[in-house]
Amino acid sequence: MSGPTAPETGAKAPLAPPADAVAPVRHPDAPAPGEPIGSHYENCFGCGGNQPHGLHLSARADEGVAVTAEFTVRPEHQGAPGLAHGGLLASALDETFGALSWLFRAITVTGRLETDYLLPVPVGTVLHLSARCEAVHGRKYYSVAEGRLDGPDGPVALRARALFIEVKVDHFTANGREEEINAAMSDPDTVKATRAFEVNP
Ligand SMILES: CCCCCCCC/C=C\CCCCCCCC(=O)SCCNC(=O)CCNC(=O)[C@H](O)C(C)(C)COP(=O)(O)OP(=O)(O)OC[C@H]1O[C@@H](n2cnc3c(N)ncnc32)[C@H](O)[C@@H]1OP(=O)(O)O
Q1: What is the DSSP letter of 6?
Q2: Domain Thioesterase: where (predicted)?
Q3: ipTM for the whole complex
Q4: What is the per-residue pLDDT across 162-187, written as a single tens digit (0 to 9) for each?
Q5: Of all protein residues, whose CA lies closest to atom 61 belonging to ligand 1?
Q6: pTM, rounded to two decimals
Q7: Paired residues of 137 in beta bridges
Q8: Pocket-forming residues, ligand 1, beta carbon under 6 Å
Q9: What does 7-48 look like in DSSP terms, one character per residue?
Q10: Domains observed in the chain
Q11: Separation CA 84–CA 80 (nearest Å)
């Protein structure tokens, strides 16, 4: 029997951008600062409206290559009595990082995500999240995020770093379950979201 193996060390380990990484570029068609970034898929656990237990996270573009987002911690999100589950909070950060895709207009998926939990997050909290892309190296996007309690300037409860990797639409079509892929392809909103990325020069 084999147990879990530790993440690879060496080149894959650091979340700090390599020395020859470049600054991210805000795409000319990126949503304007303050503009909402709609859900990319209605069944997404992070942002979809069709997931009763989902986070229903709503994100907006910020200045530069950055986003802000909020989500309200509900009783179905508990880990300990009255407190949010840690993995779920990582999901909220993951989704916020994912929303950065709309700023540079490239589909990116999580390669690596590191979270520091600084304060417990009670049920009922509106968590104020923000994420910013710091650097790009080929298909790799290096970003930082935080989550605050009691407002956008409230105490920092979460800090995170992530490495997202650029993929093409076939990442989803080749790997997803056929049933959901077919349904998504016949949903005009998903098709619209997909097209937005396909026209990316
Ligand atoms: C039907 C239509 C559907 C339409 C959809 C519409 C639009 C959608 C719009 C927006 C979606 C946004 C969704 C956001 C949701 C929130 C984010 C998530 O939760 S995403 C889910 C969790 N993540 C995964 O499931 C990834 C699983 N992993 C993989 O699939 C592969 O490992 C992948 C694609 C990440 C990389 O595989 P490779 O074969 O393409 O590329 P390689 O060569 O391995 O990596 C490229 C570079 O990245 C580094 N790298 C890869 N993984 C790394 C890691 N874990 N740590 C460090 N570096 C890593 C490698 O060392 C390499 O670096 P060097 O170019 O050589 O410098």
Answers
A1: P
A2: 82-138
A3: 0.96
A4: 999 999 999 999 999 999 999 998 98
A5: 12
A6: 0.94
A7: 140
A8: 12, 40-41, 46, 94-95, 98, 101, 107, 109-112, 138-140, 163, 165, 167, 169, 172-173, 181, 184-185, 190, 193-194
A9: PP-GGGS--SPPTT-B-----TTSPPTT-EE--S-TT-TTT-
A10: 22-198 (3.10.129.10)
A11: 7
